[in-house]
Input
Amino acid sequence: MIKKIVDFFKKNYTNIFFIFIIFFGFAATYALAVPKVVRIKAKIVNVRTGPMLSYNVIGQLKSDEQIPILQEKNGWYLVRLNGDKLGWIASWLTDATEIDSAIKTTGVINTNQTNVRLYSNTNSPIIKILNQGDKINIVYSKSSWSQIIIDGKVGWVNNRLFDLTDDSSNNNENTLNNAYVLEPNTKIHQNPDLNSPVLKSLKQREKLKVIGTQGNFYKIKDAQSTEGYVISKFVTTEIPKPITIYRPKSLAQTTIVIDAGHGGNDPGAQANNGRHYEKKYTLLVARELKAKLAQRGVKVIMTRDDDNSVKLEDRVLMTNQVRPNAFISLHLDSSPQANQAEGITTYYYSRKDDLPLAQSISTQFKHLKTTNRGVAFGNYEVLRDSFYPSILIELGYINNDHDFTLIKKPYYREQLTSKIVDGLANYFK
Ligand SMILES: [Zn+2]
Output
């Protein structure tokens, strides 16, 4: 039974506002590196208050979103979300290779005695004075101010006081990122401002080179070398390759992630006797399944191997890093009333990637001593967010006396795990 955990995570989202407030107080103290832009590769990437999985989630980014990174630490990127919030994302869920060096925004100060301020207003303290010709790295821009990095600190400069420049590496056309016009009649503006003169109108699908970003604009160059600014949402950079699902032709060549549901302070569903919990039996079955698969030459990865709490999203992250050929989550079901329901259900999320695996395994359950409830669509986080063929098996109802008696017996678990192995062997051939 997994629905309860999902609800638990949903409820905890109400704490996010507190986390924002606490975190944003520290944000200004971060020393930032030269900015680069990364593209989100995973379907959903959680933004956290710190550079580790154990930090709280404060927001999410979706596949294909592009976001400038402000700092890198232990494989994590510091990013800025809408509304100036800062948070960390796992670098392995982004694709930094394409845009990496392409969108690096630099500028040159055009006025002597230019004040760099702590905040984006003229009343805030001056942290540095720059002169004409001084170079700056721009991390973020909004209507009339840009945030820059100066002496390892973050400061703000009014947009009138500098001009954007091409970084020397960006003068090489090959390092520029291609972009294509999405919206017909997209205008090239002289400045990153909709009120600035229009230099040109672009046709849909026209190819552009992206030189830099400023606020909601890309600085671009078109095929005729017209340079100017377009609204970034009106163009798209090239779509990254989709993840290819490789199905080996023999079980022995596979890597399989086994996910024992619940664990630690999350016991899962309860048996009718009130003394036994789901987490114990999911782990027992997981270990027995692991042993069987290992005998067949499978490389098995467990999301937990003892009585530990592992967050759902961490189970997914782990899986997406391992890139397995299959992911199998094991649970025991529970009905609202004791002995109301019995049997095994095999859940899938993606019809294309998960359903064939679910069917291959579910069909093996027909001669077991409980009902085979077949396959069903299940909108579970561990299925939804994993990129690889994934299923979740509710191995029986823990609050059904018949099912629970079976699951406690080693000989029955032996049959059950043999059936799962048979289903996998049929799927990989
Ligand atoms: Zn469960």
User: Anything to note?
Assistant: The first strand starts at residue 36 and ends at 40. The helical segments are 3-12, 16-27, 278-295, 312-322, 355-362, 381-384, 401-408, 410-427. The CA atoms of residues 122 and 250 lie 67 Å apart. The chain has four domains: 9-95, 106-165, 176-237, 251-427.
